Amino acid sequence: MTVPVLLDRRLHAFRSDLADARLKGQVEAERFVQGKPMRVALPVVDLRGEPRPASGPQTQFLLGDDVIVFDEADGWCWVQATRDGYVGYVEQSALEQPKGEPTHVVNVPRTFVYPGADLRFPHVQTLSLGARVIVTGKTETRGTNYLVLENGEAIIARHLRPVAGHADDFVAVAETLLHTPYLWGGTSAFGIDCSGLVQLSMRMAGKNAPRDSDMQAAAIGAIIEPDADYGNLKRGDLVFWKGHAAIMADEKTLIHANGHTMSTNYEPLHDAIERIAYLYGYPTAVRRP
């Protein structure tokens, strides 16, 4: 008999009828399957809690993200992200079979994909920071350098970097996303939420981070005990409330994606603490990556 284990459904693929084969012996299900690898084929894809368009997005995937598909039905796939383990449903049309490993990642907030190496061409896609592509060549047109994709499309060369590289300062990455609209479940430069900002910024700096704020508050770096006036914090520290995450830009100012301004912006730490307190209480944790 399977011994009940409390597993986070956000990070473990199991339902009463079907479960990830790796969970056999930990959960009960009618069937266990291995799952098959697929890859996100669109610039941004919503991961939903249920297989229907009206289900709110839990998070998002970006072009080039890898997933494991456990089930396909009625135009939906039940998947788990390879990068952060998040589980949910995406539209089947958003996925494709992997065709080699991505070589480059977008390293600016947003960039255009052109049908050829000419910025005067009408663009065919817009990609977010963090999107991954396969580059097969390079060329120059009127002094502008382009990297050419496997399908012949092109991206401005300076807007990409090799996937093995990373930014030196994740806070500086977050600062490039200032004024990005707030979007619940968002993980892109088109719309982002508080923990999405933390995760994407850290990923671009070569640091893995869980997806949701409660996961981040439990796992990232070391716990810091703040002074009574929070005077011992520094750039890069993470401040958590119940359901919210923010990044210290310096010892007195944070940067966060928030529903108050509906954008990513700076805010004095003490102003944020006072503003948030009456609804959600005081900070629950401070961590130093």
Automatic annotation (TrEMBL):
Name of protein: NlpC/P60 family protein
UniProt key word Chloroplast: no
Molecular function via GO: cysteine-type peptidase activity
Span of domain NlpC/P60: 164-289
PROSITE patterns: NLPC_P60 (PS51935)
Record family assignment: Belongs to the peptidase C40 family.
Record GO biological process: proteolysis
Keywords carried by this UniProt record: Hydrolase, Protease, Thiol protease
PANTHER family xrefs: MUREIN DD-ENDOPEPTIDASE MEPH-RELATED
Pfam families linked to this entry: NLPC_P60 (PF00877), SH3_16 (PF18348)
